[in-house]
Amino acid sequence: MKLNEIADNPGASQSPMRVGRGIGSGKGKTCGRGVKGQKARTGVAIKGFEGGQMPLHRRLPKRGFRNPFTINYNEVNLGRIQAAVDAGKLDPAASVTIESLIAAGVCGKPRDGVKILGKGALAARLAFEVAAASKSAVAAIEGAGGSIVLLRVKAEAAEAEA
Question: Can you give the pTM of this predicted structure?
Answer without folding.
Answer: 0.59
